[in-house]
Amino acid sequence: MGTVRLTTAQALIKFLNQQYIHVDGEESPFVEGVFNVFGHGNVVGIGQALEQDAGHLKVIQGKNEQGMAHAAIAYSREMLRRKIYAVTTSAGPGSANLIAAAGTALANNIPVLLLPADTFATRQPDPVLQQLEHEHSTAITTNDAFLAVSRYWDRVTRPEQLMSSLIRAFEVMTDPGKAGPATICISQDVEGEAFDFDEHFLKSASII
Questions:
Q1: N or C: which end of the chain has fewer CB within 10 A?
Q2: What CA–CA distance (Å, rounded) separates 5 from 147?
């Protein structure tokens, strides 16, 4: 099996397009689309990847991050947890607006993929606009607040980490007993970083 050179964000979108679910002998895509409010941290990564090739994903621009997440939760519940939407936001306050909705999804075992942008992994442009600043640690970001309200949580600071992170997130979201929100925080410089991703990771996969 070979590799495909993509940015982290491009690999993310291709992966979302390739996840399928089997129900009563019928196969259908598990991820219906992506709700978004683009800004610093996700517009030149996930935003660009969606513009280049969204595949079958429906790309819906929202006006309020919490509203988008609640819409994604309602959709997943209406579809009996057989389909989900991903939700991507900018870093800082945009991400923080998802937290209450994540708590709702966790309490009700509703799968939703939350993709809040995170600060630069290199920490070179530091601090950046609306970055949460703590005197005792530069490793803490707004996205640490999702730890208490996510069934699965991870921070991606290198492109290759995306593969294991996504696989684990989808295992959790499709587990009938443990389903809930999966939060993957991707550092904004890493979203645009290129890597040779394993072709197997990008192939169609049936998750149930």
A1: N
A2: 31
State the CATH architecture for 3-206. Answer: 3-Layer(aba) Sandwich (3.40)
Four-CA torsion 152, 16, 201, 192, nearest 10 degrees: -90
pLDDT single digits (tens) 63-113: 999 999 999 999 999 999 999 999 999 998 999 999 999 999 999 999 999
Residue 81's contacts (CB-CB under 8 Å, 6 or more residues apart) are 109, 110, 111, 179
Task: Please state the domain extents for the chain.
Answer: 3-206
Q: Which residues contact 172 (CB under 8 A, 6 or more apart)?
A: 111, 151, 152, 178, 179, 180, 182
Task: Please compute, for residue 15, the number of CA atoms within 13 A of its CA located in the half-sphere on the CB side.
Answer: 26
Give dist(CA 63, CA 60) in Å, integer: 10
Pick from 41-50, 142-151, 196-205: least confident: 196-205
**Cβ count near 190 (within 10 Å):** 23
**pTM for this prediction:** 0.94
State the number of CA atoms in the 13 A half-sphere of 134 facing the CB: 8
